[in-house]
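Morning. Coffee machine broken again, so started the prediction first thing and wrote up yesterday's gels while waiting. Chain of 293 residues, entered below exactly as on the submission form.
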Amino acid sequence: MPELPEVEVVRRGLERWTAGRAIASAEVLHARAVRRHAAGAADFAGRLAGRAIGTPRRRGKYLWLPLDDADGPGEALLAHLGMSGQLLVAEPDREPEKHLRVRIRFADGGRDLRFVDQRTFGHLMVADLVPDRFGGAVPEPVAHIAADPLEDAFDAEAFFRALRRRRTGIKRALLDQTLISGVGNIYADEALWRAGLHWARPTETMTRAQAERVLEAAREVMSAALAVGGTSFDSLYVDVNGESGYFERSLDAYGRRDEPCRRCGTPIRRDVFMNRSSYSCPGCQPRPRRARY
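Came back before lunch.
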């Protein structure tokens, strides 16, 4: 699933290609793509027609395109890419993609915005904007999500206090989007490798210095991934122009089972974690005596 860097790459592409443009029409080609829009596909399309798009925004793994709302409190086109969702810009006469789910045409006759989703786990919806706890406005379904570590609104001290109150493992805490958003399986493993902490380290035993180390590692690895277009293991994650990122070449832990640790040479270990995988170095990320899974 795309994580913060991958979604931010898409957001930046949308800012370039969609901000300030007026929507002529929206066509829903697969109802599942707008299943979270409770009023249905026709209402979804009708609420987009004639609207102008503002500067795209993101929080964690969600992104949204604010819509002009002279007569209302504010709405946005909210997107979650799921496992395989793609937001692409394409010339209007380009052949439809095999898994095209929603097509948005613009009044200027320029490039379309297309939502392509092979596995149909992603979704689009028009959502009301509501005040968030950080003084901004977010789509209502995103209001419960924490700030991400690249946001100015992120409160490192509050994060540390929340960790100490929890009785769970540090990786499970990093994946909790109500505690810290945007960090998924890949970047949790990479941040913990950089911080030298095992994924099952009990959060209630974390020191402030350790929490700060994890946060700094998360910021470093996600910023590095963002600089090269994110991590693409297959053709399903691409930017708005259909191009893949290549941070997978720089991964230190994730996906490197039995390969030597780049820091100490110990073979990387793979553990089963929450029905997926967790990668760590037994040498420089020793398992704690009291592990929490």
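The mean pLDDT is 91. Going to sketch it on the whiteboard this afternoon.
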